Each structure stands twice: as C-alpha cells, then as structure tokens.
C-alpha cells in the first residue's frame, strides 16, 4: 500500500480530480460563447482611460485548456516519478482553481487585473510583516502567539497619535514604539517571572482587546467628534519602476508595503546569533 | 524578607497556594481597574457598584451569573485536562462549536421519547466535541504536529463550518434571523427555577463534571497516566505507558468537556443555534484553567467569577458610562497575576511554596 500511494501519485490524483471537477462545473454553468475580459491599464491610467490592452478570454475554452494542462502535469508526475515537483504541481493546481473562479466570476464582464494584484500586495503587507515577526521570535526560541494583540495595540495607539498630532508620521513612529512597549510585557512575564510564553502571549492578546476597546470609547471617539481626522501616509511612486505597466502598480506604487522588502532580507543577515539562542539556550547565554 | 522560619502546617501552605494567590490576583486586578477608571475621570463607586449589583445584587442576578458561568466551567475543565498532560488545547472554541452543532441537529431533527431525547442530544454534542479534540491529539501523537497550531486551525474549520451549516442546510426557514430551528421540547434541559431565572440543569451537570474530572485525574489509572505524561513524557514512556494513546485520550476528554459546554448552551439555554454563537470561550477557558491553579474543583469559583464579570459588565456600563472593555483589561491582568504569581507574592510578601508546577507547552517544535 505504501508503494502504491506515493506522494506524487496522490497529488497527481488530486490534480486530475480537480481538473474533472472544473470541467464538469464549467460545462454546466458557463455558456460556451461567454467571454471574460482581463483589463491591463497603463501604469497611472485612470479607470475611464483607454487601457493598455484588454485580454479577452473565451471563458469555457480557457478553463478547459487549464484543466487539460493539469491532467498533462499529473501524467508527467506519475510517469516520470518526479516527487520533487509535487509541491510545485500542487501550487499550480491551486493557482488554476483560483484563476478559474475569477474567470467564471467575470463572465461577459471585465475586471482590472492589475488593480486586483496591487491590492493583493497591499493586503498581504500586514500578514507578511506579522509572519516576519513570528519568524524572528521562532528562530530565537521565543513562542509568540501575541502578534495579533501587538498589532492591534500598536494600530490603536498609533492611530491616536496620528489624530492627536494631526500627522500620520507621528502615528507610524508611535505605533512602532507602542508595539515594542507592549511586547515588553511578554519579555518581563516570561523572563523575569518565568511565565509560560503561551500564557503571556494570551495575556497580551486579551489585554490588547480590552485596552483598544477602552481607548476607542474613551479617547478616539471624543477626538473624532472634536474634529480630528486621520490622514493617510502619502503614496510613494518609485520613479521609473513605477511607470512599468503591471509591475509598477503591483509593487512600486504603495504606501508602506516596501517595508516588507526591507525587513525580510535584513533579518536573515542578523539572525545567526538568535538561531543559536533558539537551538541551544544555555551555550548562548555563556557567549 | 525575614530568614526566620515560620512554622506552617502543610494544609495552610496548600490553601495558600491554591486559593490565596488567585484571590489576591483578583483583588490586585480590580484595584488597577479602579485606577484606570479614575484616570478616565469616571466614578469608581458607580462603576464597581454597578458591576457587583449586576453580578450578585439579586437572586436573579446570581442566577444569571451562574448561567454565564456554566460554559466556562466546562471550558476551564477542558483546558485543565490538557494542562495536566502537558498539552495546550486552544481549540475549545472550535470544539464548543462542533458540540453545539451536533446537539442542535439531534435536538431539532431527531424524534425520540422525552427523557431519552435530551440524553441522546447531550451525548451527541459531547461526542462531537470529543471527536474534534481527538483529531489534533491524534495528529500530535502520530505526526508530532504541535497541538497549539492544529487546534487553532481546527477552530477556523469548526467555526466557519458550523456557520455554513447554520446558514445553508440547517437554516430555520420560518425565521428571519440566521439560526437553526428550535429543538423539540423533549430535547430541552429543564430550567431549575422557571424560565425567568434562566438557570438550567446544565449548571448541575457542569458541577458534576467537575467532580468526575477531579476523581478521574486523582483516582484512576487514566488520570495517573495523564499526569505522568504531563510531568515527564520520557519517564512515562520508560515506565511502559503508551504516551501516544494518553495524548489522544487527553485531547478527546478535553474536547468532550468543550462539547458538553456547547450542548448545554443549546439544549438548556438557547434552544437553537445562531450563527456566530460562541463568543471567545476558547481564550477565556484558558484563563479559567489558570485561575483554578490546575485544580479541577477550583474551576467552579473561577468560572463563577468570570461569569460574574461578564454578567455585571452591562450594569457597570449603564451606571457609569465605563466601556465594557474594562472587563477584558481586568481579566487579562488576573491571568497575568495568576500566571506570574511571583508578582503577587512580592506585593503581599507570601513565601514561595514548593508545589508541583504546571507543565505547559514545550515550544513549537518536536
């Protein structure tokens, strides 16, 4: 049994079943002559401007083709026994499913695909930063389930600062400081008072919900009723790179998403000592 | 600190560790809460007066507090059983969701004679929770996947899954709100003092469950294996215990308790299941298990305290204009002081007792 169901065969079967499911669903619900239009505008094009190009895809035919590709890939996985390609293939299956859902959602309609991709990067930014925070802790052997609470607290305090100083930059700075301050609770509880790290993380999470809710009713709402209004950080359009269609709006016309690009490599370089800390607590304290 | 030896009996020391520190932790948290109220410029007396009147001011308030406390007793027991085996069950929220779903389905869509129906519906809810807890336990035992991560993920699956089940297949077509149909009257857990007081038989089941868990952990072989696996899994293994099986049993028992919480909420109180029914029971249950200092009997007062805070919060807000979120702050402080008992011991000069510590998670890996 173990040899019959190898990993690449299981994944190939999942891919083929997905292809069959896509085929059947499209055959039932999408009219054969339907067209889905993906619009790619110029780098700084307004919605009403003429686009760079409108990619008009016959919905059913495109999905059939993608499903066919999935089957071809599955056969390749099984015949060539490429277990090392199984993960890539699985990623492909997921991408095909998502793209097919998108195509069926815009049958005989069109969507600005570049705008969607840009928004995707923007929405991914806090998750990516939170994940980097988690990795930093994980590598140094700190269990940090309080990323959520820290984010919440920092966002709340930063927003108050931005309102009070009427300056988004102050908000940014105060938010970073506030995040650092509340994480001290984690540090003090777990290091000085030897609390289990999951518990001190839980404490921060519950505390953050309480404190932010409390600050909202007692500080933010009064500030807003007296006319305080938050301003956003400006959008930085990186010259030249931002002018490139597709890539420009996706990666080089943001407010804060660049931080991910900066934060990500920097922690790799400085992490050797923390890694050591994480693996061998006692030797590291001797260093 | 004096170096003088204070003669103290063992009983006093146990009492001090078990009850004194949590009580002082609560007092300290309430004092800090008062400081916060003063800083906001509100009236402390009105705020805490409202909190206490709303929680224990009248027979009805007390009954409501006990109603609030009921799911917390089960939830606290669920987390506590895990603690004893060195497992951290963050999945109580999801297990409650599955338990309440199973109970709601059996209660509304199965026809059975009166007494049998309520028993079957209750057991269905308990079994649902147990199954939902056993899966992460099996994953931990079989693959080493950390139960903290798997139970968090199972929370999402359970909450979104039950949300779907409530809104699509089991939706009450006659109702405008998104909920399942009312359960049959044969499946209802009766109210103890009539419907006005809302206190239902689920509270008695919860109290009974507490003593069963205490007996199970202290007086049975399973309980001994659970405690040994928590204290030192390697030693348990060398002593010939099946640690993998113990992990699965522990998580199933833990889920069983959570499932019961969901079942009594549906069968005793709500009589149907609404979309987004369980509100943060998971984290609160962890807090209660900590507050109970890992002692099953301690779960009852801890849960009642929690229920009292929840129940009194409304009147506190009404009387003083203080945001209901103050309760969350107080709760977080209580957990912090109970978990870091050194803080309380320093403030009140209580000597450190040599008791058995709680073994919790050992990091994510392994």
What is the overall silhouette of chain A? globular
Gap between N and C termini of chain A: 51 Å
The DSSP helix count of chain A reads 11
Count of β-strands of chain B: 0
* Average pLDDT reading of chain B: 86
Radius of gyration of chain A, whole Å:
25 Å
Succession of helices and strands of chain A: HEEHHEHHHHEHEHHH
Please tell me about this protein's structure.
The complex is a heterodimer of chains A (287) and B (366). Chain A is mainly alpha-helical. Chain A contains eleven helices and five strands, in the order H-E-E-H-H-E-H-H-H-H-E-H-E-H-H-H. A three-stranded mixed sheet of chain A has the order 2-1-3. A two-stranded antiparallel sheet of chain A has the order 4-5. Mean pLDDT of chain A is 80; it is low at 277-287. Chain B starts with 9 loop residues before the first helix and ends in an 18-residue tail after the last helix. In chain B, helix 3 packs across helix 11 (281-291), helix 3 (59-84) packs across helix 12 (299-320) and helix 5 runs antiparallel to helix 6 (147-167). Chain B is globular and about 55 Å long. Chain B has helices at residues 10-39, 44-56, 59-84, 92-109, 114-143, 147-167, 202-219, 221-231, 233-238, 243-270, 281-291, 299-320, 326-339, 341-348. Chain B has 366 residues and is an all-alpha fold. Chain B is built from 14 helices and no strands. Classes of the chains: A mainly alpha (287), B mainly alpha (366). At the A-B interface, helix 6 and helix 7 of A face helix 11 and helix 13 of B.
């Amino acid at each position: 049994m173990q040899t019959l169901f190898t990993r690449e065969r299981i994944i190939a079967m999942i891919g083929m079943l997905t292809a069959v499911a896509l085929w059947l669903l499209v055959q039932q619900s999408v009219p054969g002559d339907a067209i889905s239009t993906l619009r790619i505008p110029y780098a700084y094009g307004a919605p009403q401007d003429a686009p760079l190009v409108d990619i008009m895809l016959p919905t059913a035919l495109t999905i059939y083709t993608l499903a066919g590709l999935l089957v071809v890939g599955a056969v390749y996985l099984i015949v060539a026994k490429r277990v090392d390609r199984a993960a890539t293939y699985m990623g492909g299956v997921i991408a095909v499913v998502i793209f097919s859902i998108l195509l069926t959602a815009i049958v005989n309609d069109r969507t600005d695909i570049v705008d969607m991709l840009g928004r995707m990067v923007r929405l991914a930014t806090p998750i990516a930063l939170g994940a980097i925070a988690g990795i930093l802790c994980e590598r140094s052997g700190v269990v940090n389930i309080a990323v959520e609470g820290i984010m919440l607290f920092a966002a709340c305090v930063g927003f108050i600062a931005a309102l009070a100083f009427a300056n988004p930059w102050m908000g940014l700075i105060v938010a970073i400081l506030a995040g650092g301050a509340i994480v001290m609770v984690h540090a003090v509880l777990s290091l000085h008072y030897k609390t289990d790290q999951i518990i001190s993380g839980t404490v921060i999470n519950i505390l953050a919900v309480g404190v932010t809710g409390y600050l909202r009713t007692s500080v933010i709402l009064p500030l807003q009723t007296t006319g305080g209004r938050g301003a956003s950080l400006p959008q930085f359009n990186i010259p030249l790179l931002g002018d490139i269609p597709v890539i420009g709006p996706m990666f080089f016309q943001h407010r804060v998403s660049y931080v991910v690009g900066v934060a990500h490599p920097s922690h790799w370089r400085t992490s050797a000592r923390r890694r050591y800390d994480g693996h061998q607590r006692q030797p590291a304290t001797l260093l | 600190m004096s170096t003088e030896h204070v003669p103290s009996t063992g009983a006093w020391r146990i009492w001090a560790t078990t009850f004194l520190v949590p009580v002082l932790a609560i007092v300290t948290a309430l004092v800090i809460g008062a400081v916060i109220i003063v800083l906001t410029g509100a009236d402390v007396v009105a705020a805490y007066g409202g909190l206490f009147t709303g929680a224990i001011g009248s027979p009805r308030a007390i009954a409501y507090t006990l109603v609030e406390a009921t799911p917390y007793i089960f939830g606290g027991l669920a987390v506590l059983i895990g603690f004893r085996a060195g497992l951290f069950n963050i999945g109580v929220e999801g297990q409650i969701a599955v338990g309440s779903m199973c109970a709601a389905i059996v209660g509304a869509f199965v026809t059975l004679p009166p007494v049998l129906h309520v028993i079957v519906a209750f057991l269905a809810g308990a079994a649902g929770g147990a199954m939902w807890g056993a899966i992460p336990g099996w994953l931990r035992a079989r693959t080493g996947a950390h139960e903290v991560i798997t139970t968090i993920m199972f929370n999402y699956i359970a909450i979104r899954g039950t949300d779907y089940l409530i809104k699509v297949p089991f939706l009450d077509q006659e109702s405008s709100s998104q909920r399942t149909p009312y359960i049959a009257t044969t499946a209802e857990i009766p109210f103890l003092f009539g419907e006005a007081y809302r206190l239902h038989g689920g509270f008695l089941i919860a109290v009974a469950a507490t003593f069963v868990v205490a007996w199970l952990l202290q007086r049975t072989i399973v309980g001994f294996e659970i405690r040994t696996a928590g204290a030192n899994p390697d030693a348990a293994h060398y002593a010939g215990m099946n640690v993998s099986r113990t992990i699965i049993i522990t998580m199933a028992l833990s889920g069983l308790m959570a499932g019961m919480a969901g079942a009594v909420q549906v069968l005793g109180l709500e009589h149907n299941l609404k979309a987004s029914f369980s509100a943060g029971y998971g984290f609160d249950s962890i807090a209660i298990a900590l507050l109970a200092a890992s002692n099953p009997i301690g779960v009852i007062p801890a849960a009642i305290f929690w229920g009292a805070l929840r129940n009194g919060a409304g009147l506190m807000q009404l009387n003083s204009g203080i945001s209901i979120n103050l309760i969350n702050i107080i709760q977080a402080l209580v957990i912090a002081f109970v978990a870091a008992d050194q803080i309380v011991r320093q403030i009140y000069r209580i000597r450190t007792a040599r008791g058995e510590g709680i073994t919790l998670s050992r990091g994510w890996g392994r």
